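User: Second chain of the day. Same drill as before.
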Amino acid sequence: MPQVIHSIGTGLFVVMLALAGYGAAGMVGGAVPANTGWTAPVDGVRILVESNGVHTGLVLPKVAAGVDWRALARAEDLADPRYAGYDHVAIGWGDRRFYVETPTWRDVRPATVAAAALGSGQTVLHVEHIALPSPGDQARVVTLRPAEYRRLAAFVRGSFGPRGWHRTGYGMDDAFYAATGRYDALRTCNSWTGDALRAAGVRIGAWTPFPVTVLGWFAA
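Assistant: Same format as last time:
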């Protein structure tokens, strides 16, 4: 019995050490800048980077700089199509099971987190039809040049899978769509947000696995 207890204790120590190492690596990766020469323009396309404490995402105008999201984010995909009348969409990417089952921190389950961390090829985009939210601690404004916004939009469009699986979301104004890409501990919903901004040319961390490593780059 002492040997069993010792083995369990060793196993827990290794797991805790791995989690601590992952957390430290994520914070370092989030602090190392990419696109170091980028500065925000005075005028341009105004987007927001938002977080609900678990997932980060992008709040985008439905029509701007030659980009129109209405063909992908359709009114008929919502539980209440009237919400498609709003002029912005909030878009985030992640593991299908983790995203669908964890709208807030209180919904997080260890088994769901562990399964997502091990990796999944079943990913989704979560699209919510909204009015532009007020900037704050959990919604940071980023202004992009039209060409930068089009690069960001191209990245997001490339994350949509072929039109097929989709379902209504958490409420009346949102929906989930099949996405491309594999989710795991290295490519999380938050690193996807960072990847999108990096593709646009925005100054942000080289690897952004946590909400703080995304929002921390932009003033509240």
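Residues 3-9 have pLDDT under 50 and may be disordered.

User: Great, on to the next one.
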